[in-house]
Design goal:
heterodimer; A: alpha+beta; 30s Ribosomal Protein S19, Chain A; 3-stranded mixed sheet; 1 helix; 3 strands; B: mainly alpha; Helicase, Ruva Protein, domain 3; 30s ribosomal protein s13, domain 2; 2 domains; elongated; rRNA-binding (chain A); Ribosomal_uS19 (chain A); Ribosomal_uS19_CS (chain A)
Chain lengths: 92, 125
């Protein structure tokens, strides 16, 4: 079910401050964030966030299309390298 | 015989049912169409007057996205997710279920027919 509109988008409060500080500093360095549950807002467009996936910070360059998604969606938490081919497998 | 929304030629079924042969129109929208045009439920497609067919066509053109347009819109939505590099897009790319279902077993609709695993012995009697 979708979130009620009257609540507005969810995000952790400190996100805005972090984004402002990064903009003010001018240099585009990766902003490290742990808040994967925060919504991507229009004012984040163009910034690069390092979204923590439990192990490392995945750099995410926010584009216009990403507005409305959550940060966590762009930082996969699982790695799957496929199943190893069994060399001992015999043909019958 | 009546052509509505492009290529669809529903047969001599009741209008309500015949309309559901159009991609993008199910029972709900078909009911909406028939009631808003005042077509009785027992009316069949071959008993429709040309005027009524025209009205149905106009209503669908105006209010609903059907057939090719709808298919294109859905494909575009999926493509957007895939280009975005978000989790749902990755799942679409790999042909795995998108909505968090289990994949340990089942998920055969997305994964397709089961592939045999090399070296696994068959239990035979």
């Amino acid at each position: 079910m979708a979130r009620s509109v009257w609540k507005g988008p969810f995000l952790d409060g400190y996100m805005l401050g972090k984004a402002d500080k990064a903009r003010a500093s001018g240099r585009n360095e990766v902003i490290k964030i742990w808040s994967r549950r925060s919504t991507i807002l229009p004012q984040f467009v163009g910034l690069t966030f390092g979204v923590y996936n439990g192990q490392k910070f995945i750099p995410v360059l926010v584009t216009e299309n990403m507005i409305g998604h959550k940060f966590g969606e762009f930082s996969p938490t699982r790695t799957f390298y496929g199943h190893a081919v069994d060399k001992k497998a015999k043909r019958k | 015989m009546a052509r509505i929304a492009g290529v669809n030629i529903p047969t001599n079924k009741r209008v309500l049912i015949a309309l559901t042969y159009i991609h993008g129109i199910g029972r709900a929208k078909a009911t909406e169409i028939t009631t808003s045009l005042g077509i009785p439920a027992e009316r069949r497609v071959n008993q429709l007057t040309d005027d009524e067919v025209l009205k149905i066509r106009e209503l669908i053109d105006r209010d609903f996205q059907v057939e090719g347009d709808l298919r294109r819109a859905v494909a575009m939505n999926i493509k957007r997710l895939m280009d975005l590099g978000c989790y749902r897009g990755l799942r679409h790319r790999r042909g795995l279920p998108v909505h968090g279902q289990r994949t340990h077993t089942n998920a055969r609709t997305r994964k397709g027919p089961a592939k045999p695993i090399a070296g696994k012995k068959k239990v035979t009697k």
